[in-house]
Amino acid sequence: MSVKNVCLVLMMIVLAGCASKGTKEQDGLGYGTQSGAVAGAQSGGVSDGSIGQGAAIDESAAAGPRASLKNRTVYFDYDRDDIKAEFREIVAAHGRYLATNPAAKVRLEGHTDERGSREYNIGLGERRAQAVKQALLLQGAGASQIGTVSYGEERPAATGSDEESWALNRRVEIVYAP
Amino acid sequence: MRVMPKQLLPKFLTSCCLLLLALPLQAQLQIEIVGGVARPVPIAIVPFGWQGAGAAPFDVAGLVARDLASSGRFEPLAGRDLVQRPTTEADVDLADWRVVGAEAVVIGQMRETAAGQYDIEFLVFDVLRGQRLLRYRQPASAAELRLAAHRVADVIYEKLTGVPGIFATRIAYVAAIHRGGRPDLYRLIVADADGANEQVMVESREPLMSPSWSPDGRKLVYVSFENKVAEIFVQTVRSGARQKVSARAGVNGSPAWSPDGRMLALVLSRGEGNLDLFTLDLGSQVLTRLTDQRSIETEPAWSIDGRSIYFTSDRAGGPQIYRIAAAGGTAQRVSFEGGYNARPRMSPDGKRLAVVTNDRGNYRIAVLDLERGYSQVLTDGRQDESPSFAPNGETLIYATRDGGRGVLATVSVDGRVRQRIPAAEGDVREPAWSPFRTN
User: Fold this and answer.
1) Distance CA B226, CA B207 (A)
2) Are the beta carbons of A159 and B182 separated by less than 8 Å?
C-alpha cells in the first residue's frame, strides 16, 4: 500500500511538471485523435488548439525529452519484466503523450520468446505488458486509456531459434487505437 | 500411417538404428518410427479373406499390420514371408510359421451381412505354444470400416501385451501455417491417432492454444484469440457446435476438464495483470477462486479422483509444480529437481506427471513419479513441450522442433520407442491425446 502512495505522489509531481512543459512540446503526430482541442486546453501556448502544423519527429535520440513516439517496441531481457534503462524515456514519452491526450488509447501487447511452456509464457507476456502500463500510469496516463493483452510466444516477430530471434521476441508493443 | 513392409529384420535391433520411412500421405501428419524395442515380436498378419464380389471394401490386415508396427513392439512379416494365406482355422499349420520365425499369427475374414453392413472375424494364434489365443467378431458399417480395423488392432494388441491398444483413439493438435515467414493461419485439428481422417474444428487468423479433451471424448475446450483477446471456447467434435465459456477481462487461459466432466479449471487475470487459478462449474456457472498470488499460477491438471489440481507456479522464483485441493486451500510444491518445471499432465493411472523441464539449458519432457518423488527425462530435444499421455499410459505425445519446424513426436514411458510426426504443411504443436472412445 505504501508503494501506491509513493506512486501517487510521484504522479502528482510528474503531472505538475507536464502542465508547465506543455507549451514547449508540439508533437504534431497526426494520430487522428481529438488531441487538438485538448492540447489547446492543457498547454495554453498552442493557439486555437489546432495541431495541424506539428514539428518534425526527432528520431535520433533514444533518450532525452524529445524521444520519438515512433519507437513503440520495448525489449526485455530473458525471464525479466523490468524496463531497461534504454527504454525508460521511450515509455515515458508515450506516458506523457497519453497524459496530455486523454482521448488517446493504447493496447500494450506483451510477448515472450519461444522457450518454455506456452501458457506460462502468456503469464510472462502479461507481466511485461503490466510493467509498461505501470510506467505509463506514472507519467499521468489514465488507466482507462491503457489495455493489455498477452500473446505469450504465439505471435513472434522473428521465427529463428537463436539468441537474436529470441531477443526480438521478448517485447511489448505499444499499439495506438486508430 | 503407412509403413513400407521390409524384409525380415534381424531380431536384435538397437533403438537408435531403426528408421522406417513413411510413404508420403495426403494426410497432414506422417508417422516415422525412429526407435523401437530391442526385440519386437515377429507377427504374421495374413490378408483377410473376403466373401463377396470384387475387391474387399477395406484392407483390414494391412491397417492392423501398420498399427502394430507403429507401436514399436511388433514386427509384421513381409508379404513374401507369409508361407501360407489361410483364412480359416482349419487351414492354419503352425509348424510352417515356426520355420519363418513368426511368434504369432493373425488370420481373418470379412463378409457383408446386409447392405452396407459387415462382419470382421479374426483369430490370433500363439506359434510357440501351438494354440489359438483368441477368436473375435467385429461388426461395422461401411463408414466405420477403418475404425473397426483399428479396433481389431487394439484387441490383438491387448491380447498379446496385456495392455489396451490406442489405435482407435484420436489426437487434437494446433497447426500454424506460415505465409512469408510468420504464422498467420491457425487450425485446431482432430485426427485419428495414426494421422488419418483429419477434421478441422476451427480455423483462425489469430492464435489458437491449449486444446483439452472432455472426459467422454466428445468435446474440446481451447483458447482462441479470434476476438483479439484470449477467450475460452468449448466445441463438440461431432457437430462442430461452439460455445464461448469464458471471456472475462484480461487473460483467459489453460482450460482443463474435471474427471467428472462438470467443471473446468482455468486461469484468469481478471484485468489485474497476474494469473491465478479458478474453477468454473459448467452447470451453475459459479466461478471459484483457488489462488490469490502475485506470482503466475497457471496450467492446471486434475488428479484422477478430481480432488486435487496440479499446476505451475513461479512463487518460488522459477516455475515449479504445485498441488492444491480442488476446493481451494494451501498449495504444496511437488517438483524439486532443477529450476524449471511446468505444464503438468496427469498419467491415466494417476501416479505420474508429465512435465516440461529445463534439462541443462534444453526444454525437455520428464515424467515425475508422484509417490517416490523422482523424475526421469524422456526426450532429448531443445524445445520439447506440451506432453500428453495416451489413455493406456504407455506413450506420451509431445511437440518438438526438427529442421526449423514444429513437429509432433511420441516416446514410450520407458524411453525406448520413439516416433516423429511432422506435418505436411506448417508447424504442428500442442497435441492432446483423446480418452478411449466410448461411443
Assistant:
1) 7
2) yes
Please name the residue of chain A whose CA is at the shortest distance from the CA of residue B175: A154
pLDDT value at residue B404: 85
ipTM of the complex: 0.88
Task: Decide which of B161, B192, B213 is a domain's last residue.
Answer: B161
Residues of B in contact with A156 (CB under 8 A): 182
Enter the C-alpha cell of residue B344. Answer: 503438468
**pLDDT tens, position by position, A72-96:** 999 999 989 999 999 999 999 999 9
Q: Where are the domains of chain A?
A: 2-176
- Chain B nearest-CA distance from A25, in A, is 32
Any domain includes B138: yes
CATH number for the domain whose boundaries are A2-176 = 3.30.1330.60
Does B299 lie at the interface with A, CB-CB under 8 angstroms?
yes
**Residue B175 and residue B148 share a domain:** no
Q: Do B153 and B175 lie in a common domain? A: no
| Domain-located, residue B144 | yes
Range of the domain at B83: 39-161
Q: Is B33 within 8 Å of B17 (Cβ atoms)?
A: no
Helix (H, G, I), strand (E, B) or coil at B365: strand
Instruction: Report CB contact under 8 Å: A115, B383.
Output: yes
If asked whether residues B315 and B420 sit together in one domain, one would say yes
Is the model's pLDDT at B44 over the cut of 70? yes
Residue B250 C-alpha, separation from nearest chain A C-alpha, in angstroms: 7
Q: Which of A107, A111, A112, A117 to mutate to test the interface with B (most CBs of B within 10 A)?
A: A117
Structural domains counted in chain B: 2
- CATH code, domain with B282: 2.120.10.30
Q: Given an 8 Å threshold on Cβ–Cβ distance, is B363 in contact with A149?
A: no
Contact B274 A123 (CB under 8 A): yes
B332 touches chain A (CB under 8 A): no
The CATH number of whichever domain residue B155 belongs to comes to: 3.40.50.10070
What single string gives the DSSP state of each residue in B383-416?
B-EEEEE-TTSSEEEEEEEETTEEEEEEEETTS-
Residue given cell 461401411 in the structure block: B142
Q: How far is CA A65 from the centre of its chain?
A: 14
Chain A positions touching chain B (beta carbons under 8 Å): 114-120, 122-124, 126-127, 129-130, 133, 148-152, 154-157, 159, 161
**At which of B127, B143, B161 does a domain end?**
B161
Same domain assignment for residues B122 and B269: no
Q: Which residue out of B186, B266, B267, B269 would a mutagenesis test of the A interface target, given it has the greatest number of A Cβ atoms within 10 Å?
A: B269
B64, with CB counted inside 10 A (0-12, 13-18, 19+), is buried
Cβ neighbours of residue B4 under 8 Å, at least 6 residues apart?
Answer: B20, B21, B22, B23
pLDDT tens by residue, B85-136: 999 999 999 999 999 999 999 999 999 999 999 999 999 999 999 999 999 9
